[in-house]
Amino acid sequence: MACVMDGNGRWAQRRSLPRTDGHRAAETTVIDIIEAARGAGVRWLTLYAFSTENWNRPDPEVEFLMGLVRRVVRKHAPLLPARGIRCRFLGAGDPRIPRELARDLDDLTTLTADNRGMTLTVAFDHGGRRDIVEAARSLILSGTPADEVTERLFAEHLPFPDTPDVDLVIRTSGEQRISNFMLWQVAYAEWVFPEVLWPDFRASDFIACLHTYRRRDRRFGGVPPRTNGERP
Ligand code: IPE
Ligand code: IPE
Ligand code: MG
């Protein structure tokens, strides 16, 4: 499952604070939700932290976010092994990412590579379209003949091909759009759009979203299961 962590800026603006205070306040939610997901038995959690489009934000905000991610990674890295969390970063290829931060992300990936409890993927400098274009490039470079290209083979050229398709995406703050998030992998995801802003999102809200998901009738293009006595 995945979270599009949205609404930090509005959280701050409603308090007449600078937008960056909203990002700072998001840290608590991130840690709470990782724990809530682990407690609920979620094996694959992806958090959308920074999109390829977020580079269009004012430089001071982008710089703040880079610094914040570094502080959060350094502060919480030592806690991950004991919790059995494998952490990795989806994206993170842009040369504008400060070198020290890129190194910390690599170090955390290496440090937690053998953990098997939960895989936490942080989508950082991520764009769904970019991933698809890079998969196409990789497929062409592999010399695969066009008539051998299948959905399954294509998916193997996406980053982290072991990650299962996303079943549930939670996007906070009431915004109802994809914003270029894992376009291939969300093809049949269920979406939940709680109104609450990300810094106010708590474990109880997260559990409520899981309940909403459980009540959904997932059909995958089929028809609902037959009720007793009903003719096809
Ligand atoms: C999400 O909060 C965090 C990032 C995109 C990095 P926003 O910063 O988008 O908050 P709003 O949508 O402006 O309220
Ligand atoms: C999407 O949120 C990216 C993240 C939450 C990291 P945005 O706030 O950047 O998306 P838009 O601009 O509203 O589509
Ligand atoms: Mg936003």
UniProtKB/TrEMBL annotation:
Its cofactor is Mg(2+). One of its GO terms (cellular component) is cytosol. Belongs to the UPP synthase family. Its EC number is 2.5.1.-. Homodimer. NCBIfam families: uppS (TIGR00055). Catalyzes the condensation of isopentenyl diphosphate (IPP) with allylic pyrophosphates generating different type of terpenoids. This is Isoprenyl transferase. The active site is at D6, N54 (proton acceptor). It is an enzyme of class 2 (transferase). Substrate binds at residues 7-11, 19, 23, 51-53, 55, 57, 171, 177-179. Pfam families: Prenyltransf. Mg(2+) binds at D6, E190. The keyword Magnesium applies. GO terms for biological process: polyprenol biosynthetic process. GO terms for molecular function: ditrans,polycis-undecaprenyl-diphosphate synthase [(2E,6E)-farnesyl-diphosphate specific] activity; magnesium ion binding; manganese ion binding; Z-farnesyl diphosphate synthase activity. It comes from Streptomyces calidiresistens.
